[in-house]
Specification:
about 0% strand; mainly alpha; 6 helices
Length: about 130
């Protein structure tokens, strides 16, 4: 839980302080890309806080659902980044980066739900936390 929260907190800070890389990979059909990047950074930070706060299991689960939904919503940007790189003569960052990233997205959805105890599949994450 702490590792995932730290990952999302770091990503949120980067979204807020250095948005340019995220703006470059944003699909053209996304309205107000600057606002979207700002809001995704805020969402990551709030989700990370919700995961680690010890007071309310419902808030922790809501944070897990929020981060899972976030991971689904940013998937088009990941696909767009992949397509943009593959169109470059040198293939940009390359398949070694993009393929694991694409396959990791469903894992991030599951992990957010599991560590927040929103789901218990395939085993219980935190039986003592309720």
């Amino acid at each position: 839980m702490w590792v995932l929260a730290a990952f999302y907190a770091f990503a949120g800070i980067v979204h807020l302080t250095a948005p340019q890389p995220f703006l470059r990979i944003m699909p053209d059909w996304v309205p107000s890309p600057g606002l979207v990047v700002l809001l995704t950074g805020v969402a990551e930070l709030l989700g990370a806080i919700a995961l680690v706060q010890p007071f309310d299991a419902r808030l922790r689960k809501a944070g897990g659902w929020g981060l899972a939904l976030y991971a689904v919503c940013v998937f088009p940007a990941n696909i767009n980044h992949f397509a943009m790189d593959m169109a470059k003569p040198d293939h940009g960052i390359g398949l070694g980066y993009h393929v694991p990233r694409i396959f990791a997205q469903p894992l991030l959805v599951w992990l957010a739900l599991w560590v927040s105890s929103a789901i218990e599949w395939p085993w219980r994450a935190h039986s003592a936390r309720g």
